[in-house]
Design brief:
heterodimer, A: alpha/beta, seven-stranded mixed β-sheet, six-stranded antiparallel β-sheet, 6 helices, globular, B: 12 helices, 21% strand
Chain lengths: 348, 357
C-alpha cells in the first residue's frame, strides 16, 4: 500500500478468473490508460483549474449542445492531461459538482481539452451559462482507450448518431491526422442528426468533406409536420432513401446527403467488413440498430467498437455505481467491443 | 514472546501514547460506537452499530475547499484541506471489522491510490480484541467467511481478555511500537497466561452457532441473474440501505459540493447501492430501476463481482446487515437460497428436456 505508486491491472491475490462467464465478462483493452499515467503523485480527486477559451453552440433547443474548449492554467499540469482517443474527463463546476464527459479533442500535451455537453442536469446547466474566461476544474483523463495502434493497416468506418459523435470524433481526428493517416486504409465517416442545424462540428465536417481521402456520408431525420413526420425529403438536397429496402437505394453519383436514420444510411453505404473496424457511438437505440445493420453486411461483433456510459462519481473504480455486472465502465471501459457488450449482463 | 497488560494500567498506557489519537468503543444510547477515548474499552463491548471503517473512511469527509477569485464571490479552484499528521490508534477493534479494513485497502489502492483513505490507514495502528463476553453472539458467522473471533488479519496487535488483564500479542512493527511506548504498563506473559488465552480463543470459536455454507453460491449466481428469485427476495425490502451503510466492507460513496455562507467545499459521504438515485442517469434513465435490481446488485457484488475484480468476498460475517434490517432480510438465507433456486431451475430444465424427449 505504498503511496505514489499505481498498480496495474488486478490487485494481488487474484485467482485465475478466465473460466467461461455467463454473467458479465470483463472487457476492454486492459490497462491501456496506464500508458498515460506514469505515477500518481497527485491527489487523484483534486481538479486542476482550467480556463474556458471557446464555446460553440452545436445544437439549439431546450437541451442545447455546446462544445467547450478548456485550457489548463498551470503549464506543469499539461503533460498529465495527454489522453488517448476514447478516454473521458471529469469537469468540475466548483460549488455545483462534477460531471463526466468523453474527450472529443485531439490528444495533445498543450493542456487543451474539448468536451461537448448537452444541457440536462445541474452541472451541465451551469456549464451552459459559462462565458469565455470563466474557470472550471478538470481531472483525468480516465478509462481505457480505442486500440488505434492495433488497427494500423485496416480500413476505418466511423458511425456517429447525434451527440454520440463526440467520442467518435477523438478517433477520427487521430486517424485523419497527417501523422497517422498513412497508417490506415480507406476511411468512411457516417453521421446523422435530427436536422441540419443539429449536425455538430460543422466547420470540421466541411473540411473533411473537402478531403479526397475520406468518404463522408450525412443524414438528417424527416421534417415534422402537425401530424408527425412528413414523408419525403426533409430539406431540398437531402433526398429520402428507400426505407423499405435501404440497401437497394440508388445512390446518385457523388451524392452523400440523405433523409433517413443512421442505421439505414449504413445499409445505403454498405461498408465492407473486409480487414476493417467500425467505431460507433450514439443513443442506445441507435447503437442497437446500427449493429443490426452491420450484421446484415457481414460484420462480426468483435470488429465493432463503441463506448458505454453510466452514472459515475469517482471515475476510478472506487465509488461503486457505474458497474454493469462485474464490469466497471470507468475502469474496464468506457471502450468496449460489441462482442464484450453482448457478453455483459442485461443491466443497461 | 507475548506480554500482558492489567486492565487498570490501560489508562496509563493511553496517557503515554501522546503521539496518537486513540479511538475505541463507547456505549451511547444502548449501542457501541467508535469515539476518541482515554481509557480501556468497556467490558463486554459488542460489535459497534457503525463499523470502525468510519475512522479511515468517515461517513462525511471534506475532500477539498474551494478557492475564490479576487471578487470573493466566484470559486476558481480547489485545494486540499490540511491533513492531520498525528498517528491513529484503534484500541478495541473486533477481528471481523479489522479484517474488513484489509478488503477496503485493496479497493482504495486498486490501480489508483485514494489519498484520503490511504493516508489515515498509514497513520493507524490497529489493536484487535478477541471476542469475549457477549461476543461472538447469535448474529456472528465469521468462520464461514474464513475469519475467526481471534483472527489477526489486518491487526497490529491482538489482545485477549483474561479477566483482570489482557494477553497481548504484538504482530507487526506498529504493534511493537505500542509495546515500547507503553513501557512498564505491559508485563511479561507467563506460560499460564498463554494457556489461558488459548482457552479463551477456543471458547469464542465454540460460541459461534450460525453457519453460512457459501460453497456453490457464486456458481448459483452465475445462472440466476434474470431469475424471478430476485423479485421474491426483494419484496419486503424498504430500500433503506442500512445493510450497506453499516457493512464494514461496503465502500460506495457520493461526492457533493456544499456551499454555506459563501464558503465552498467538496465532500464525500457514504452512499448505498440500495438507493434509486445511486445509478440514475441525468437523462432520467436508470440501469437499476427497481429494488430487485438493487438487492441483486448487492448480493452479486459481495459474492461474485468483488471476487472477480479484487480476489475477495465482500463479507466478513459480522451480522450487522441481518441484525439491523427492519424487515429481517437475512443475507445468509438469500445467498444460500440461490443454491436451492439454481438447483430447482436445473431440475426444471432437465424435466422439460425429458418431457420434450
Amino acid at each position: 500500500m505504498s503511496k505514489g505508486t499505481r498498480k496495474r491491472g488486478k490487485a494481488e491475490g487474484v485467482g485465475p478468473a478466465e473460466a467461461p462467464r455467463p454473467v458479465g465478462g470483463r472487457g476492454g483493452p486492459d490497462g491501456a490508460s496506464a500508458k498515460v499515467h506514469a505515477a500518481q503523485e497527485h491527489n487523484v480527486y483534486l481538479p486542476v483549474t482550467a480556463t474556458v477559451t471557446k464555446i460553440e453552440l452545436e445544437a439549439g433547443g431546450a437541451r442545447p449542445i455546446r462544445t467547450f474548449t478548456f485550457e489548463i492554467d498551470a503549464p506543469a499540469e499539461h503533460a498529465r492531461f495527454l489522453h488517448r482517443p476514447g478516454q473521458f474527463i471529469i469537469v468540475s463546476q466548483f460549488g455545483t459538482g462534477e460531471s463526466v464527459f468523453a474527450i472529443s479533442s485531439f490528444p495533445n500535451a498543450d493542456g487543451v481539452i474539448q468536451v461537448s455537453a448537452m444541457k440536462v442536469g445541474n452541472v451541465t446547466g451551469k456549464m451552459h451559462e459559462l462565458k469565455v474566461g470563466d474557470k472550471v476544474g478538470l481531472r483525468g483523463p480516465y478509462g481505457n482507450d480505442f486500440p488505434v495502434d492495433a488497427w494500423k493497416g485496416k480500413d476505418m468506418v466511423f458511425i456517429g448518431a447525434g451527440i454520440g459523435v463526440s467520442p467518435v470524433r477523438s478517433v477520427y481526428q487521430w486517424v485523419l491526422h497527417p501523422d497517422h493517416r498513412k497508417d490506415y486504409g480507406n476511411v468512411t465517416l457516417i453521421y446523422g442528426a435530427r436536422t441540419p442545424a443539429d449536425l455538430a462540428y460543422k466547420e470540421e465536417f466541411a473540411a473533411i468533406e473537402a478531403r479526397d481521402d475520406v468518404d463522408l456520408w450525412l443524414c438528417i431525420d424527416w421534417a415534422f409536420g402537425p401530424k408527425g413526420p412528413i414523408e419525403g425529403d426533409a430539406q431540398p438536397g437531402w433526398p429520402a432513401i428507400n426505407m423499405k429496402a435501404p440497401g437497394e437505394t440508388v445512390v446518385p453519383e457523388g451524392k452523400r446527403r440523405f433523409t433517413c436514420f443512421v442505421p439505414q444510411l449504413v445499409e445505403v453505404v454498405k461498408p465492407s467488413p473486409e480487414n476493417a473496424i467500425v467505431v460507433t457511438c450514439g443513443p442506445p437505440i441507435a447503437i442497437k440498430f446500427i449493429t443490426q445493420a452491420l450484421a446484415k453486411l457481414g460484420w462480426t461483433p468483435s470488429q465493432i467498437y463503441t463506448t458505454l456510459e453510466n452514472r459515475m462519481k469517482c471515475g476510478i473504480g472506487k465509488c461503486g455505481r457505474c458497474n454493469i455486472g462485474d464490469i466497471y465502465v470507468c475502469k474496464h471501459g468506457p471502450v468496449f467491443t460489441y462482442e464484450e457488450v453482448k457478453r455483459m449482463v442485461n443491466e443497461f | 514472546m507475548a506480554n500482558t497488560i492489567r486492565k487498570d494500567r490501560i489508562a496509563q498506557l493511553v496517557s503515554r501514547l501522546t503521539d496518537y489519537d486513540v479511538y475505541g468503543p463507547v456505549e451511547e444510547d444502548g449501542v457501541f460506537l467508535y469515539r476518541r477515548v482515554t481509557g480501556p474499552p468497556p467490558p463486554g463491548f459488542t460489535n459497534s452499530r457503525v463499523p470502525p471503517k468510519s475512522i479511515f473512511f468517515p461517513q462525511t469527509e471534506t475532500m477539498m475547499e474551494f478557492e475564490k477569485d479576487g471578487t470573493g464571490h466566484r470559486f476558481v479552484g480547489a485545494r486540499e484541506p490540511e491533513r492531520a499528521a498525528r498517528k491513529i490508534l484503534l484500541l478495541g477493534g473486533r477481528p471481523c471489522d479489522v479484517r474488513a479494513a484489509t478488503f477496503l485497502d485493496r479497493l482504495f489502492t486498486w490501480d489508483y491510490i485514494d489519498p484520503y483513505y490511504v493516508d489515515k490507514r498509514e497513520r493507524a495502528t490497529v489493536i484487535s480484541f478477541t471476542c469475549t463476553g457477549p461476543m461472538p453472539n447469535e448474529q456472528c458467522f465469521c468462520p464461514s467467511m474464513d475469519g475467526s473471533p481471534s483472527g489477526t488479519e489486518g491487526a497490529d496487535m491482538l489482545w485477549t481478555d483474561l479477566g483482570d488483564s489482557y494477553y497481548v500479542e504484538a504482530l507487526t512493527p506498529k504493534g511493537e511500537a505500542i509495546l515500547s511506548a507503553g513501557g512498564d504498563a505491559f508485563g511479561k506473559a507467563g506460560k499460564k497466561d498463554a494457556g489461558a488465552a488459548k482457552e479463551v480463543k477456543a471458547a469464542a470459536d465454540e460460541r459461534i452457532t450460525r453457519r453460512f455454507d457459501r460453497e456453490g453460491v457464486a456458481a448459483a449466481l452465475e445462472c440466476l441473474f434474470d431469475d424471478p428469485y430476485w423479485d421474491t427476495v426483494s419484496e419486503p425490502c424498504l430500500g433503506c440501505g442500512i445493510c450497506t451503510l453499516l457493512c464494514p466492507t461496503c465502500h460506495c460513496f457520493d461526492i457533493n459540493d456544499v456551499v454555506r455562507k459563501g464558503e465552498g467545499r467538496r465532500e464525500r459521504t457514504w452512499d448505498t447501492c440500495q438507493a434509486a438515485y445511486y445509478s440514475l442517469h441525468a437523462s432520467g434513465h436508470n440501469p437499476r430501476p427497481g429494488k430487485k435490481h438493487r438487492q441483486r446488485n448487492r448480493l452479486y457484488h459481495k459474492f461474485l463481482y468483488i471476487d472477480r475484480n479484487l480476489g475477495i468476498v465482500g463479507c466478513v460475517g459480522c451480522g450487522r446487515c441481518i441484525a439491523n434490517c427492519p424487515v429481517n432480510i437475512d443475507i445468509i438465507e438469500v445467498a444460500e437460497g440461490t443454491k436451492t433456486c439454481a438447483e430447482a431451475r436445473r431440475e426444471g430444465a432437465g424435466a422439460d428436456a425429458k418431457g420434450a424427449a
